[in-house]
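Researcher: Here's the sequence for the chain we discussed earlier.
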Amino acid sequence: MAQVNQAAAQQFSLDITNFAVAVQIDIELLLKAIAFQIFVNIVNATPVDTGRARASWTISAGSQSRDTPRFSGNKGTGAGEAAMEANNQLTHMLGLQVIYIDNNLPYIGRLEEGSSTQAPRGMVRPALSRANSVVNSFVSQA
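Model: Thanks. This is the structure I predict for it:
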């Protein structure tokens, strides 16, 4: 499983919290929007052969998921199913919690390291670098 630097993740969380307080934004709503956008970007960037890797992304609040979602076997449905489940999980999240985005397939780390020509830069790092677009969207609405 691909890991993000813990200190960088904590600093990102602190920066978002400070920003939300400074511009008087609902931090819980901002956190959910950022998490959902990162999740969707990761899923959409995941290379597709059978669709299993794309369909196996999960999002959870409070603790990491140890599950690997059941794969439907249809290449085209993985992203939509994963996004609907992510939206459902985030909708039911109460309060501020750590949000985990996981993929428990044994080969997901190799994909993140660029083993596929479909995603030579991986999926997670590019999605995190694009997260600022969600923050900018909230700023323009505040």
